[in-house]
Amino acid sequence: MRHRLLLLLYLAAVLTITSLHDPVLLAALLPVAFLLAGRDLIDLAWRALAAMLIFNSVISISYAVIAGLRGEFAGGYLILINLRVYLLTFLTFLLARKVNLFSALSFSRTLSTLLSLASSQIQAFRRLFGEFNQALISRSPVRPGPRDLYRHAAVTGSLFLRRALNDMTDISQAMRSRGFFINSD
Amino acid sequence: MIELTGINHSYRKNRSGLRDINLTIEAGESVVLLGANGTGKSSLLKIINGLIFPASGRYLFEGEPVTKRSCRRADFVREFRQSVVLLFQNPDAMIFNPTVFDEIAFGPRQLGLQDVDDKVRHWAHLLDLEHYLDRPPFQLSSGEKQRLCLAALLILDPRVLLLDEPTSYLDPGTTGWLVDFLRGLELTTISSTHNLSLAPELGRRTVLLSRDRSVAYDGPTDELLADRELLKTAGLTHIHGHEHDGVEHRHYHTHDWD
Questions:
Q1: Cα–Cα distance for residue pair B171/B139, rounded to 1 Å
Q2: Euclidean distance between CA atoms B37 and B234, whole angstroms
Q3: How many angstroms separate the CA atoms of B143 and B124, rounded?
Q4: N or C: more exposed end of chain B, with fewer CB within 10 A?
């Protein structure tokens, strides 16, 4: 019950954060979120920052350049977007750390199954990603240069995408074969 | 050449992993790492390749310790990664260059070696890849990818070739080809497998990893294959019961044993 309640609170927080358009209010929510993290604060704060840093930097810089050239630059908007993404990322990491999703979703067979599938896929891809990285290290007598790293990332990404699509086909066929969609047909 | 003393390793705390592994492998030996799934064969190969590091114990290659610290030293890594190479179980993990040619040339180009072109063509010829040099590697079949990975490793002229379940993606014909090819190489090989019929083809000496991830046997392959009780304990064979003309009959059985 506790986990289900925490999940509901998280969903309510996501709705609230996405509907707030005042950077000051969002900034005020940040210490509240930090308090909820307790001992995990520093670890989660860094993880959330690392997760959004590259993507948000690219978006923010692109926005700043284009809006600046058009004379429409709005600093408040930039702060709002970055604060919102950071808060959502932080809360999602907090959810993953504090809430047992299997227990929270146990009321629905469909949601539990989907969560199991997603978890097993995450584990499989995490293992595969480690394997690919080790293979690059193993094959490199000299530290790989930016071009090699870029190629490696591109090939790994496209292979993972193909693999995910294949896996999804297999999984949906296996689920159909085991009667999972029988009530929805 | 390779000396492992008291190696213990686990991926996660409080989980069992490799236990007290002691191995010495001399130059020119062909050693088989035999064990059921999950006995730590891949982990041991990755330790020998300096990709993961044991929680305790010592690993010496040519008398030099292989540690996290030494693997951060550019001079050591340059020499070590050229000398000890690993053929991963999944060849896709090793392939990331735009063409077969670039894939084979990756290592020598990194090292700034001379005559890369000639070397690539030489290994492509030996591994029957010369007609694919301009093709993207991902278009190749599993067997061709395996040959490509071998070419990309052997072009470095390594002293130790580690093979992690080298035949798991191959059909019987390509498996036979690979076994013959490996036999012709004059270097130290350590191959992992759980295939009993393949073990004697891959090496005269076998190290058997038991279910508790320790060394249960280290000696001649043919002697191990004769010890059916030990193979059963290690999860590589089982006792099979069936009936002949109403009489129950039980014997040791494995599905890959000739």
A1: 18
A2: 10
A3: 14
A4: C
Backbone angles phi, psi at B248, to 5 degrees: -75, 140
Q: Where are the beta strands (DSSP E) in chain B?
A: 2-9, 18-25, 30-35, 56-61, 64-65, 84-87, 160-164, 188-193, 205-209, 215-220, 238-244, 247-253
Interface probe with B: pick from A142, A149, A160, most Cβ of B within 10 Å: A142
SS3 category, A61: helix
Is the pLDDT score of A181 beyond 70? Answer: no
The answer to whether the Cβ–Cβ distance between B49 and A138 falls below 8 Å is yes
- Which B-chain residues 32-71 have CB contacts (< 8 A) with chain A? 46, 49, 51-52
Structure tokens at B1: 């050449």
Mean pLDDT of B37-61: 92
Please count the residues of chain A.
185
Q: In a 10 Å sphere around its CB, with 0-12 CB exposed, 13-18 middle and 19+ buried, how is residue B100 labelled?
A: buried
Mean pLDDT of chain B: 89
Phi-psi sector, B26: left (phi>0), alpha (psi -120 to 50), beta: beta
Give the tens place of pLDDT for each residue, B184-224.
888 999 999 988 888 999 999 999 999 889 999 999 999 99
User: Model-level pTM?
Assistant: 0.78
Q: Report ipTM for this prediction.
A: 0.82
Question: b vs e for A22-39, b when ≥16 Cβ sit within 10 Å of the residue's Cβ?
Answer: ebeebeebeeebeebbee
Is B117 exposed, middle or buried (CB count within 10 Å of its CB: 0-12, 13-18, 19+)? exposed
Task: Summarize pLDDT for A147-169 with one digit per residue, the tens.
Answer: 999 999 999 988 888 888 888 88
